[in-house]
Give the backbone structure.
Amino acid sequence: MKIAYFGLGKMGKNMVLRLLEQGIEVVAWNRSPEPVAEVVNAGASALANFDDLSKFFPEQKIIWLMLPAGKVTDQILAEIKPFLQSGDLIIDGGNAFYKDSMRRAQELSQQGIHFLDIGVSGGPGGARTGASMMVGGKRADYERILPLLQAACAPTAYGYMGQAGAGHFVKMVHNGIEYGMMQAIAEGAAVLEKSAFQLDLAEVFRVYTKRTVIDSRLVAWAQEGFAENPGLENISSTINHTGEGEWTIQAAKELGVEVPIIEQSFQVRVDSAREPENFRNKVVSMLRNKFGHHKATKE
C-alpha cells in the first residue's frame, strides 16, 4: 500500500516512521522541511508540490491528513482538491470536530472523493509503537485501508464506528472521559500529598499499577512522573486544553445527557490559569506531558 501523508507534527512524523517500518510506502508533505528530511532519511519520498501527486499516484490516491483541526484542514483540502479525482480517498486523522467531518465527507462526495475520519489515541508514543484508531465513513473504505490500519495500530487496536463523523465523535468522547479520569487521579494524588504520612507518591502509584482496580496507563504515567520529579518542581499549574472536552460537553447537552464529571473537569482547566501553585493541577499538566508531550513546564 502507498499513501500520501500530510502533516509531520509530533504525531504525524512518528506514525510515518512506523508505517515505513511496516512496509507502507509513504509520500510525505509538511510546511516546514525538517521533519520531511527526517522521514525521507527513513525511506519516505518527499512531495514538494501538490501537482506532483499525479506523478506519485497515477491512479487512485490515498491521502492521510494529520493537521490541526479547523481552518488549516479546510485550507489544505481546498488546495489539493484540484489534484484529486473520483475514487480518491481522503483520511482525516487529526482531532477534528465530528460535525466538520460530516460536512467534509458530504462536500468531497460531490466530486466522487471518498472520506474517512479516524480518531487516533495513544499520543506520540503510540503513533510510533502502535496507536488505537476509531474509524468513521463507508465500511467499504474502512475495509480498503485495513492493511494500513494493521500497520499503524497495535494488534486489534482499531475498529469501524459507523458513518462519516462517527470516528471523530467516538474519539471526542474518549477525550472527555480522559478529562475526568485525569482529574480523579490528580485529586487523589493531591490528597495523598497533603497527608501526614509523608508518602512517596512514586511508590504509591507503583503499587497502584499492580493489579488494583484503578490500574491503567494514566496511573502508570503518574508513577513515572512522580519518580522523575517527586514534587513536580517547575510544572505549571495552568492546564491547557485543546477543545475535545468542551466539544463532548456541547454534544452531551444537545443529546440531553448530563456529564457533570467531564464538565467539572473542563472547568478546572479553564480556572487553572488563576491558580499559580496548585499541586492537583500540576498532576494533570504532568500527565498531559507524559502521554501527549504537551507543554507542562512554567514559562
Remarks:
- The mean pLDDT is 95.
